[in-house]
Write a structure and sequence with these properties.
Oligomer: single chain
Radius of gyration: 28 Å
Shape: elongated
CATH superfamily of one domain: Ribosomal protein L7/L12, C-terminal domain/Adaptor protein ClpS
CATH topology of one domain: Ribosomal Protein L30, Chain: A
Strand content: 15-25%
Order of helices and strands: EEEHHEHE
Largest sheet: 3 strands, antiparallel
Strand order of the largest sheet: 4-3-5
CATH architecture of one domain: 2-Layer Sandwich
Structural class: alpha+beta
Number of strands: 5
Length: 121
């Protein structure tokens, strides 16, 4: 018999402890579980148009809370004004919801009815 031949497998004892990180045994075949790691779902923060919030306020909020420069903030504001909504950015769910909450509180303090939502991408 060649020296590199595999010895026959012995069935495991019924009371033998399973190895927590080892392969699962199914019949004569050892199967290793593969875990798929998925990126967390991202959410977009959307500004919605209204007839009362000023353009300057929207630009200020985009610069203050979303780190946009003035030209990018102006572009998003014009998208909100002309199309009815505009996306400020994409974030993990908790970050998007926090930004929505912060912006909404700031807008209410300033007397603006600005509506901002977090929506799945």
């Amino acid at each position: 018999m060649p020296s590199n031949a595999n010895p026959p497998r012995r069935p495991s004892a019924p009371d033998a402890p399973d190895a927590p990180d080892g392969p699962d045994e199914q019949g004569d075949l050892a199967v290793e579980q593969v875990r798929k790691v998925q990126r967390p779902k991202r959410y977009k923060v959307v500004f919605h148009n209204d007839d009362y919030t000023t353009r300057e306020f929207v630009i200020d909020v985009l610069m203050r809370y979303f780190d946009k420069d003035e030209s990018e903030a102006t572009f998003i504001m014009l998208s909100v004004h002309h199309k009815g909504s505009g996306v400020a950015g994409f974030y993990p769910k908790d970050v998007a919801e926090t930004k929505v909450d912060e912006v909404t509180k700031h807008a209410r303090k300033q007397g603006m009815p600005l509506r901002v939502t977090a929506e799945p991408e």
